[in-house]
Amino acid sequence: MELKNWILLILLGSVWGSAFMFIKISADDFGPILLVNLRLLLAGALFIPFLLQKKYLAHFKSHFPGIIILSIFSNAFPFTMFSYASLGATSNMLGILNGTTAFMTMVVAYFWLKETITLKQILGILIGFVGILILVNPANGSSTLSASGFALMGALSYSFSGVYIQKYQLNANKFVLIGWAMLFGGVLLTPLALMNLPDQIPDTNAVLGLLWLGIVSTGIAYLGYIRLIEQIGAVRTSTVTYLLPVFSIIWGSIFLNEPITWIIFSGFIFVMIGMYFANNRSTKVLEK
User: Fold this and answer.
1) Dihedral, CA atoms, 95, 235, 102, 257, nearest 10 degrees?
2) Which pTM does this prediction carry?
3) Which of 105, 230, 245, 263 could anchor a disulfide with 140, C-beta 3.0 to 4.6 Å?
4) Which H or E run includes 130?
5) Residue among 127, 102, 128, 96 nearest 281 (CA)
6) pLDDT tens digit string along 160-176?
7) With bands split at pLDDT 50, 70 and 90, how would you rate the model's confidence at 26?
8) 284 sits in which H/E element
9) Number of domains forming the structure of the chain
10) Kind plus residue range of the DSSP H or E element containing 203
11) By the 8 A CB rule, do 288 and 115 touch?
């Protein structure tokens, strides 16, 4: 892989890893639903000038069912779950629990796509599950049980959408799918957002956090994500998942002074090892 693609991959991981910190900063002032609503509308607005070009607009009708499904399960629902989770968890916990998407995806693919599963992947699930148990332990003051539950539901939703794309939208134009799904996700949340407006105007830090989330970590970052898929393929690009928990811990520690306790560190190690083995496809041992 060329150096420029390595740089883009690491940059993408660092930007997406920062999202959990900005969710933590902004969710309390805006409220989880309004924050996600505005975040998706901002990101979708960046895609609109491109999506309205004739070469992309031609795909809209055929891609519409997939756009609606992804607007819910890849954007509106998981973003909202992580925003609610941020009210009771540190940003580094959000990043680590987001990492469970990797082995959840493998389980969903096993039952839905009838994909084979290997001994290493089974080991990855077990190790990752141990990591989850460590992190959601009541002794871990970095997250409440409900916050951990919200984050895990968000990760499961990401897993569902990833497998859905593989099953039904593998040959679809990813730019059209992702761009319109962001905009429609924001539109679908608008009625709920209007019913959940904050009691007072969010402060400057919360507004800046929203702008970063919408414009940079969602809008611009997804443009980089699509470019990486075009340059190095979806499989290599998916390795960015490993970087998100790492950067969420780094940014949370530097900017929010979040402690890295032994519980968090040990849970992080188990989740990362689980992610590694869950993405390893060597010896087949089970088949649906």
Assistant:
1) -10
2) 0.92
3) 263
4) helix 119-135
5) 102
6) 998 999 899 888 999 99
7) very high
8) strand 284-286
9) 1
10) none
11) yes
